[in-house]
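Narrative summary of target 7.
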Amino acid sequence: MMIHILIILFWIALTLVIYTYIGYGILTSILVWIKKKIIPAPKLNAAFEPTVSLIIPCFNEGDFISTKIENTFELDYPSDKLQIIYISDGSDDHSLEILKFHQDKYLWMHSAERKGKASAMNRAVLEASGEIVVFCDANTLLNREAIRELVAPYADPFIGAVTGEKRIMVQNSGHVSSAGEGLYWKYESWLKQLDSDLYSVVGAAGELMSYRKSLYEPLEPDTILDDFMQSMRVTLKGYRVAYNPNAYAMETASADVSEEWKRKVRISAGGWQSMSRLKRVLIPWPSPLLTYSYISHRAFRWSAAPFSLLILILINPILVCYNPLLYGLILAGQVMFYGLALHGYLKEQNGEKNKFSFVPYYFTMMNLAVFFGLARFLKGSQKATWERAKRA
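Modeled conformation, tokenized:
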């Protein structure tokens, strides 16, 4: 009896893992293909030019802020319709002097008190004059047409938020984490496009995100994933979140695996926090497609899939005794996969990169971070204040 329970549990776990990382993308691709056959994709109105407030939260970005300011001045959008706001709450480096130097060209906000990114965003929105508020990180570079491309979907009154694409600039000499992060975001961008084409994006990229100001909802000060929570609350009001990859933010990868690990644990803690606050999305009415995408793309990846991977590695050795051929082959595959992950880790420690091991390594690290993030969430130890990640 016990062996049959373990077999059922094993196959449920394996199905969840395959569905989360492969099946969801395939199934959604089919659904999008069917939808496009029935309903033609709407054309973006490139001539649509609402007033925009570009808000750039920055914390101790002195080494990059001059480049960011220059990049912002090069954006292709009417100057009389574009308000630029820099907010540097808590910064205590030389970025303040740089921001002061150009303050006649934009609105600069600063408070010595460090309350976190969500609080800074809430404060900046109060000073925003645009119909659309756009947020982008201070350590990213936007393409020249980013604002124009980002606001074009708002010609549709049912679009409440629009996100752009996050692009990782990876050098051939980069670390394993750099290659893994770049590949991960290409995969994520593909899923975001599918989500958007089907109904709505369920995982906005905070590196370049926008909202109708009228829909912006002040976030709780302890919010960890501000971009995710804000975009999901827009969908709960009956609006959709669109994805436009023609607007993109470029940044370098994490400086090394330890920096990427800190980022992943923080995101995982934020994922658990977000799920605890978004229980309404689990109800498939009135938006069943939103619930489908949220559970499949986010909730499973932040909870069910990592636990399923743990179940697989724990139960598999026991089931080998029941069916040596079938479960022996699956166990061998698992051992090989995690062996490659360990190889990638050891190579990383030596400052080397191996193209055959960086995917298993990054995948394993990403799922392991979920457990550490859960521990932080349960203890309430994940701070909402900015933790500036070191970039390559």
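The first strand starts at residue 52 and ends at 57.
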